[in-house]
Design goal:
- It is a single chain.
- This protein is an all-alpha fold.
- It has one domain: lambda repressor-like DNA-binding domains (434 Repressor (Amino-terminal Domain)), CATH 1.10.260.
- The protein is 62% helix and 0% strand.
- It has 5 helices and no strands.
- Helix 1 packs across helix 3 and helix 2 packs across helix 3.
Length: 69
């Protein structure tokens, strides 16, 4: 599973809209949409913000491991 799919899964499991998550990590909704669709990938600082917010490891977010922590 790629990073965009992981971000979308985490967001949906938390019952957040794209706009809500975008506001939380201070990005545009369209940027988040691009990530979730695999059009672009997040910069490392944004990936860290997402991992921190959802309390998952970067390895999980990047698809290196299946375990969230």
């Amino acid at each position: 599973m790629d990073i965009g799919k992981r971000i979308k899964k985490l967001r949906k499991n938390s019952k957040l809209s794209q706009q809500e998550l975008a506001d939380i990590i201070k990005i545009k909704k369209t940027t988040l949409d691009f990530w979730e669709r695999g059009v672009k990938i997040p910069r490392i600082r944004n990936a860290i913000k997402i991992a921190d917010y959802f309390k998952v490891s970067m390895d999980y977010l990047l698809g290196i491991t299946k375990a969230p922590r």
